[in-house]
Design a protein that fits this description.
- The chain is mainly α and 116 residues long.
- It folds into 2 domains: 1-33, no CATH class; 34-115.
- Helix content is 65%, strand content 0%.
- The chain is built from 6 helices and no strands.
- Helix 4 crosses helix 6 and helix 5 packs across helix 6.
- The two termini are 33 Å apart.
Length: 116
């Protein structure tokens, strides 16, 4: 997920430019993580739940109530092993994304400050 945030938007463009110019492909792209079979499931759930994230001065965690509602809508019984996996994995993905988002916001603010 974090790779997608960092490299995803530009990966194809960078690879094309490297091929055209004869430059080596950056290690960050060559060493891209692999999304293992089955993990796409959690990734797609996390993306689907993005719209439930509270936003004020900064984005907040996806509420567990939104995840539980998703489980109910998808006929996954609360308390089942599948439901517990979804709740845990989505919360861990969200924590990682929030940390990334905060760092990115701080970097962006620093860039804006230097530009003035």
């Amino acid at each position: 997920m974090l790779y997608e945030m960092e490299q995803g938007p530009n990966e194809k463009k960078i690879m094309r430019l490297c091929r055209e110019s004869g430059q080596p492909i950056p290690k960050s792209i060559l060493n891209a993580p692999t999304l293992f079979a089955g993990n796409e499931y959690y990734y797609s759930i996390w993306w689907e739940l993005q719209s439930d994230r509270p936003v004020g001065f900064a984005p907040g965690m996806i509420p567990s109530s939104a995840v539980r509602s998703w489980l109910k809508d998808n006929d996954i019984p609360i308390g089942s092993e599948d439901a517990e996996d979804v709740l845990y994995i989505i919360s861990q993905m969200d924590v990682a994304w929030l940390r990334w988002s905060q760092k990115k916001s701080a970097k962006d603010a620093e860039i804006r400050k230097k530009g003035k």
